[in-house]
Write a sequence for this structure.
């Protein structure tokens, strides 16, 4: 019986350690800006659209689910290409109203080196800020 308890204790400690490591690896964003920048980092590393689910709002997750399977890879590559065309992306303004936020974002176009501006919408769901959409242009 002692051997079984030691084994069970070792398994429990290992599981708690793995859970703590997973939690530390990706803490919930505390601000809308953290949510957006976390989404961008995850996007550039994503191997599938499913990798982005934790960052998307419920509506975004539903939209992902509605895409035909054969289009998901193409969509991910298109979004990654557009995102990687900008460097030095930073949040320059944040307007929070309750559970919604609008960010003003700037980045440098890698092609012509000009500064591009965007509006990014973020929503708080279940206490966590989630990405909704971004619109790059003349905002």
């Amino acid at each position: 019986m002692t051997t079984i308890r030691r084994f069970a204790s070792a398994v429990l400690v290992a599981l708690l350690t793995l859970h703590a490591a997973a939690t530390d690896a990706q803490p919930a964003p505390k601000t809308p800006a953290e949510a957006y920048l976390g989404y961008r980092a995850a996007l550039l590393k994503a191997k599938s659209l499913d990798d982005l689910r934790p960052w998307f709002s419920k509506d975004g997750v539903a939209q992902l689910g509605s895409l035909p399977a054969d289009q998901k890879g193409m969509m991910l590559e298109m979004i990654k290409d557009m995102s990687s065309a900008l460097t030095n992306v930073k949040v320059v303004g944040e307007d929070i109203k309750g559970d919604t936020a609008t960010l003003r974002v700037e980045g440098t176009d890698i092609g012509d080196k000009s500064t591009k501006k965007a509006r990014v919408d973020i929503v708080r769901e279940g206490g966590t800020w989630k990405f909704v959409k971004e619109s790059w242009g003349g905002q």
